[in-house]
Design a protein that fits this description.
With about 350 residues, the chain is α/β, with parallel strands linked by helices. The protein has ten helices and 19 strands. The protein folds into two domains: about 170 residues, Quinone Oxidoreductase, Chain A, domain 1, CATH 3.90.180.10; about 140 residues, Rossmann fold (3-Layer(aba) Sandwich). Helix 8 links the parallel strand 16 and strand 17. The radius of gyration is 20 Å and the shape is globular. The chain starts with 6 loop residues before the first strand and ends with a strand.
Length: about 350
Amino acid sequence: MNAIPQKMMGVVLPGNSTVEFREYDVPEPGHAQVLLKVKASSICGSDIRAIYREHLGKGPEAYQGVISGHEPCGQVVKVGPGCRVRREGDRVVMYHISGCGVCEDCMHGYQISCSSKDFRRAYGWQRDGGHGEYLLADEVDCIPLPDELSYVDGAFMACGYGTSWECLERMQVSGKDRLLITGLGPVGLAAAQLGRALGAYEIIGLDLADGRLDLAKELEYKPGVPLVDHVIRSDDDALEAIKFVTGGKGAEVSIDCSGAAPARLLALQGTRQWGRCGLVGEGGKIEFDVSPFLIHEQITLFGSWVTSRKHLSDLAQLLAQRGVHPEATCGRKLPLREAALAYELSDKGQEGKVCIVSD
């Protein structure tokens, strides 16, 4: 293990679509904490929407001017007193929210839903995140990263893949299902990969961005097997196209990963009778006639937010066992010194997910 320096660089986001570099002391792990050498830390759409462009949060849940990046993955280089499982050299992916640990949701591993705002702190929002050279983490938030997976695989798991995974699992996607995805950004591509891994026999994907449509057409799940069977532009003719490729019935399962009202409605309309529709895209609103679109079609509507620590561990094992690599959806890997470019590319949203990697 290389010697740990005393100083490090980290990125903060002033909220005006710029990146600012600052020098920090490398932190010392306290009780039940570990120090990670950050190997990969990707950029999430919520970072762009709620921090990079402008600071939207309020009160204790707002961005606190800390080192950004809530999708980190790295290697343990030092352990503090009281650590029981993690050791130096361990490869780990982060569950990116710390909770109080004693409320009902925390006890089930869903710190994302911790009922205590005073204790719920997200890496990259209320405590230092992954866009620095080192990261101080609670041992309990560190999930083992299987040897079969890369650090970029692990970074993508931390939030985006966990979000898709939780919703698809709750909707019980299987080999009996067609899967319709509205929004082919990083979370939508994650849904496509995971839908394949769960056995979905046909995948339909929609987006408006040319770059995302082109990427979805190029990507393969396995050699010779497309990631998305039908890539459709999300325009006025999109619903007709969905009905055409599904024999007029729609898909058994749909998931909106865009957060855009028209795409959410399209996901619902593109779901067949007795089907399941999930919403994971953040922000915005949706309005529809409940009787014809939901009640009379007997559709079950799911709202899903991130995942739990246990389910993130399950996801890591599934990806390793199935040989599925989230890194395949990566649009660009850049060193920390090019973080400004990384955020700029993410903001444009025309390519795959952008990841900041160790030099």
